[in-house]
Amino acid sequence: MLTAVVFQTLFLAARTGFAVNSQNAGTSKKNKTKTFTFIKNIITLIMSYKKMWFILALVLLAGGAIMFFVSRPKQVAKNINLIDTAKTNSPSLIPTPAALVTWEDEAGFSFQYPEGITIDKHPNDMENYANLTLTDNGQAGSINILMSDNNNTLDKWTNPIDTVLGGKDGKKNLDTAGMTIGVLDNDVLVTLKRSTTLSPLLESAWQSITDSWEFIYPTPKTAPKTQTTVETDGGDVLEEE
Question: Does 174 score more than 70 pLDDT?
């Protein structure tokens, strides 16, 4: 805009000077040529400055764009690293694993399970060597551990999968109710059964039990003694078999 104004002013001045020079018969052609040369030089100088400022502005804009795109990925990566570091170092985001408790059963096995699990020993069960039910305070699912006489139960499983428990070869059976692992120990059947759906704590317990299971001393070969009622002349008497 400034250039246009200056150009118009100089052009009008040149025309005015030309008119005056035409009316003045004593003005020489040499002076007129100098006037136009002077105006041309001024216009050329102004246009040169305009081009220089335009080029300088382009250089500055290009440099700024390059710096922006070069530094932006580094800044983004730095911000991501800071966020990841904050997440890693935040105590609230680091889950604290539950402490493990060791269960040693008099029937001849042991395993570990996380604190917070409730174990029902079923003390009134006089038929099995061991009968444990693990629950999570009313949360989903349960785990049952049973040690009983072998009634060829494993032979009745459909399409069992080979597995190992406590160093002994066994079978794994899957159905709609959940999963069952069976192992024979001195002709005694040990079964671990879990529900299809377990709470996170019970899921951790299942993994811990199957990983840490041990047979710690010989399992009895005969079924535990049960009490039966025998009739005599003197009345009913409890007798152990």
Answer: yes
